[in-house]
Amino acid sequence: MPDRDGYIAGVPCWVDTSQPDPEAAAAFYGGLFGWDFEDAMPPGAPGKYLVARIRGGDVAAVSSPPEGAPAQAVWNTYIWVDDADEAAAKAREAGGSVLTEPFDVMEAGRMAVLADTERAVFCVWQAREHKGAQVVNEPGSLNFNVLSTRDPAAAKRFYGALFGWTTLDLGNGEFWTMSAYGDYLEQLTPGTRARTAELGAAGFEDVVAALAPIAADNTPQWGVTFSTDDADATAAKAVELGGAVVVEPVDAPYSRLTVLRDPQGATFSATAFVPENKDVGRANAN
Question: Which of 25-34, 129-138, 172-181, 219-228 has the lowest mean pLDDT?
Fold first, then answer.
């Protein structure tokens, strides 16, 4: 798939992690995924925003905690919008919250920090100079964003009202979809729809994120998943670099994945594409 130069409204477009010690976090993720870093903040700025790159293309960032925020490590999901102010207003109307009112990020863009009806936090991004991740879906880059929710029905109402998302159930998981995204990918890479159909996942080209029901005692949140060639090797490398394995590598639909924790406490997943696993967990599998 060609490198990206922007997204369409309603599609997750960027991730970053706030870390008490961004330099130490950069060392961990650089060692794990082979990222190179450049600080995007001007000289003398009180905090850091270390943009991670693969092949010279932006993939993610490591930052200092936002001013006034708790000094905790967390991964953040950004969703592309045409108008951050309008998105914040729509989130309120749909029963969500605006945690940080829309504001300009220098010349990069305009953003707001929002929460859904269960207080799962995410950001919206109105792009200017920064047009999101340029490299995706290859080892070391963003592969997926996943909403863990205790109330899927409420989540469907909220995100449907905010972004126009619908859902797709392939029998081994439920996903957020937008038909316009499949059209966009088909234009970007002709033959995308045919290839997903050949893999037995017709309609998956419309998917923008995943939906994961969780138990009532778990915390609703947005999570991030990165691609890897080998989930087992990535898990072992994370431990070697001072991180921890939260969920040991396991076979999943079309993949093998692991859930990891970095040395400062932020959790994330790494997944390797395994087409032979297409029927893992499928309700009607033989």
Answer: 172-181
- The count of other CB atoms within 10 Å of the CB of residue 31 is 15
* d(C-alpha 72, C-alpha 121), whole Å: 14
Q: Which of 76, 78, 42 is nearest to 62 (CA)?
A: 76
Of the three residues 127, 152, 182, the one that is the final residue of a domain is 127
Q: What is the pTM of this model?
A: 0.93
> What pairs with residue 144 in β-bridges?
225
C-alpha span between 240 and 169 (Å, rounded):
37
Angle at CA 200, nearest 5°, toward 197 and 201?
70
* Alpha-carbon torsion angle 67, 70, 71, 72, nearest 10: -130
**CATH number, domain containing residue 98:** 3.10.180.10
Number of structural domains (the chain) is: 2
The domain boundary residue, chosen from 127, 151, 180: 127
187 or 247, which is more confident: 247
Average pLDDT of the residues in 146-158: 96
- Based on the domain organization, do 223 and 257 belong to the same domain? yes
User: Is 135 within a domain?
Assistant: no
Mean pLDDT value of segment 1-20 = 90
Cβ atoms of 224 and 270 within 8 Å: the answer is: no
The C-alpha atoms of residue 26 and residue 39 are separated, in whole angstroms, by 11
Mean of pLDDT over the chain: 92
Structural domain of 106: 12-127
